[in-house]
Design brief:
With about 300 residues, the chain is an alpha/beta fold. The chain contains six helices and 17 strands. Keywords: Metal-binding. Pfam families: Glyoxalase.
């Protein structure tokens, strides 16, 4: 396993055909702030986060996941990681260097084992952010991203070997075997999870709210605005976090969450939870039951961007 050089999740970048509709959703009812826009590409920040942006939207002919971006502690760590990946046979898209995008920084891009574009960067300028107030039901920060993979263990091993992720917990069922691995790069229970799916694609992107009241208020706002609620509100056992899942205008699943578990990494041992038990999916018992239709929503469309680097 590689030494841990990654520090946190920075942003998730999406490409969509109906750019205006997608931008209206994220900068409107979802509660992000548009901080920059230039010819069919926009950068959306969470008001409580020092990250320059947490979502990037790009107008494109085909829907795809453009990239997932992680922070590193220093430019030296970026260089070290690039050298390790090259030595490990990982295909680099770019060499470490100055990043010419909103907030700048120093970083590079590469393909993961499933062909997703991953970016790692350091020295990105911090954004002026603020404390989210009581009853202010907008995202504080990006919480985590979940990725579908047709070969769950192969993808898990790749992230452990090359990027220093550690396994926190696993979901399994008697009929399907292992269906999800929760992976961490800090004491946060997961900044990424890997889900068993028929193809490589985005499972969901999760946004942290200030607290339970704000989480419920935000969920209610999105429901009242007429967007499809897929699952929730409820509280998972793995990670102990709340969840309400919605579909954005292009069928990507997005989540409001709060209170994701922080672990003592020195003493933590991964659990295998039986996902067929109702209290594993939802401790509260308030969410609509998980079924095949809900699961299929999260499979998403086949990602057309695998092993094809985004143009920007």
């Amino acid at each position: 396993m590689s030494a841990r050089l990654l520090t946190h999740l920075r942003h998730v970048d999406l490409a969509v055909p109906d750019y205006d509709k997608q931008l209206d959703f994220y900068a409107g009812v979802w509660g992000l702030t548009k901080v920059a826009e230039d010819s069919g590409i926009s950068f959306l920040a969470a008001e409580g986060s020092p990250e320059q942006y947490v979502v990037r939207l790009r107008k494109a002919e085909e829907k795809r996941l453009d990239l997932v971006s992680y922070g590193a502690g220093s430019t030296e760590d970026v260089d070290t990681l690039a050298e390790q990946l090259l030595a490990g046979g990982v295909q680099l898209i770019s060499q470490p260097g100055k990043i010419d995008t909103h907030g700048g920084g120093y970083g590079f891009r590469f393909f993961d084992v499933d062909g997703r574009t991953i970016e790692v960067s350091a020295d990105v300028e911090a954004r002026q952010h603020r404390r989210i107030e009581e009853k202010e039901a907008i995202p504080v920060r990006l919480s985590h991203v979940v990725l579908n993979s047709p070969d769950l263990d192969k993808t898990r091993e790749w992230y452990e070997t090359h990027l220093g992720f550690r396994l926190s917990d696993t979901l399994s069922s008697p009929h399907m075997g292992e269906v999800m691995h929760f992976m961490r790069i800090s004491d946060q229970h997961h900044s990424m999870a890997l889900a068993k799916g028929p193809h490589a694609s985005l499972h969901h992107v999760s946004f942290e709210m200030r607290g339970l009241d704000e989480y419920m208020r935000g969920s209610g706002r999105v429901i009242r605005a007429g967007f499809k609620k897929v699952w929730g509100p409820g509280r998972h056992l793995a990670g102990d976090n709340t969840f309400t899942y919605f579909l954005d205008p292009h069928g990507n699943t997005v989540e409001y969450t709060t209170e994701l578990e922080l672990l003592d990494e020195d003493t933590w041992h991964p659990h295998v939870y039986d996902f067929s038990q109702p209290e594993v999916a939802d401790q509260w018992g308030t969410a609509n039951p998980m079924n095949e239709l809900i699961a299929k929503e999260s499979f998403n469309d086949v990602d057309r961007g695998c092993f094809i680097a985004p143009p920007v």
